[in-house]
Specification:
The chain has 405 residues and is of the alpha/beta class. It contains 12 helices and 21 strands. Helix 1 crosses helix 6 and helix 7 packs parallel to helix 11. The protein is globular.
Length: 405
């Protein structure tokens, strides 16, 4: 697997805030990472990126942002948009952060509200990009944040908090989704020398401090990307081993393996990596995927091959991703002959003995392309519209998938 996009993005931001050079190994070659790197360069940071070798050298400036004015473009990279909005509040100047048309439909209001409570001057019309930041440093103090729409709002506030003028106390107003991503953020901060005090997922306290570069920092293999290959074993039977993946990974998406185990697959942690053995008969499951929403589409494309229905819950936030992922999955499965019931927070997928082949619409969403490719491993004649959209996180996806054939 390539390096984790989520892990790489957090390391990029923290490394840019640290003093000295950080060498990130196994960094993600994703298009989202390219957009993040280009945005940091536009702000005056020196970033040496070798996507072929999956290495990034970040020249950190100790909390200083060289640029004092300009526009920052992040395409449809939601992670970059949220993290960079928080970063800009530490600078001295005025910036506009914008992106692709879909970015204007992805909420950022809860982050704007939290940063404003911490003393920043940030504006976003009706809570959506473009975002206008007038930087004069961050005061700090107490703030509340609603992490319902995205845990990235929490992560963004946490990562810039050490550079506020006083300690930051962050309290959640609602239970956050995708909580393992908050754990990942805190783990990266710890690796750079800042310890977050916390009470579960209810409140977080970040002391004043400075990140210290560990010089070299390794990025984990991408657990979200690995889900498609774990699922290949479930879809087709047989065994798949994903090299370098471990059950104790920092990324929460390794919990997708629990879904496969509940469906009847066998999961083994080997010296080489995690090994999945498909079941002779898959069982449908009822599962809350609020903490691992990026793997919900993967499960949805396995579900038609199970013997009983599968109910996916807790993924209302998936409606404001690259596309409305709940509606898109239901639409495409239905076109293939699968009986699907759409719910506000998920879907129920019924077994289908005779899926029909066709061209799957991706809606510009990389995870639609990768997840529905799994059906093509079982159903002849399947094709994927706009396959190049996988570049957002996994440019070589189809080449790697071919190695299993």
């Amino acid at each position: 697997m390539p390096g984790s996009k989520s892990h790489t993005a957090r390391a990029l931001l923290v490394a840019a805030l640290a003093n000295g050079v950080s060498h990130l190994s196994n960094a993600s070659p994703a298009d989202d990472v390219r957009l993040f790197v280009e945005a940091l360069r536009a702000l005056g940071f020196t970033i040496d990126w070798d996507p072929a070798q999956q290495e990034i050298a970040v020249h950190g400036l100790g909390g200083r942002i060289p640029s004092r004015r300009g526009s920052v473009f992040v395409g449809n990279a939601g992670t970059a948009a949220r993290f960079l909005t928080a970063l800009l509040t530490l600078g001295e100047g005025m910036w506009e952060l914008g992106g692709a048309p879909r970015m204007r439909e992805r909420p950022i209001g809860a982050l704007v509200d939290a940063l404003t409570q911490l003393g920043a001057t940030v504006k976003a019309t009706d809570g959506y990009p473009p975002v206008h930041v007038t930087g004069s440093g961050l005061d700090g103090g107490a703030a509340t944040v609603d992490g319902t729409a995205s845990s990235q709002f929490i992560s963004a506030c946490l990562m810039v908090a050490p550079y506020a003028r006083r300690p930051v106390e962050l309290r959640l107003t609602n239970q956050a989704g995708s909580r393992p991503y908050v754990d990942l953020t805190i783990a990266v901060m710890r690796a750079y020398g800042v310890e977050v005090q916390r009470e579960g997922y209810e409140s977080f306290t970040v002391p004043q401090g400075r990140y210290r570069s560990p010089s070299t920092y390794a990025i984990e293999p991408d657990a979200s990307a690995a889900s498609y290959f774990f699922a290949a074993a479930a879809t087709c039977g047989g065994t798949v081993t994903v090299r370098g993946m471990r059950r104790d990974a920092l990324q929460g998406d390794v919990a997708f393996l629990d879904c496969l185990r509940d469906m009847g697959c066998t999961v083994t942690d080997t010296d080489a990596g995690l090994q999945i053995l498909g079941a002779s008969t898959l069982r449908g499951i009822d599962v809350d995927m609020a903490d691992i929403p990026d793997t919900a589409q993967t499960l949805a494309t396995i579900a038609p091959f199970a013997a009983t229905p599968t109910r996916i819950r807790g993924i209302a936030t998936a409606r404001v991703k690259e596309t409305d992922r709940i509606a898109a999955v239901c639409a495409e499965l239905s076109r293939l002959g699968v009986h699907v019931e759409e719910h506000a927070d998920g879907m129920t997928i019924h077994p289908c003995a005779n899926l029909t082949s066709g061209t799957v619409r991706t809606y510009g969403d990389h995870r639609m392309a990768m997840a529905f490719a799994l059906i093509g491993l079982r159903v002849p004649g399947m094709s994927i519209d706009d396959p190049s959209c996988v570049a957002k996180t996994f440019p070589d996806f189809f080449a790697v998938l071919e190695t299993l054939r």
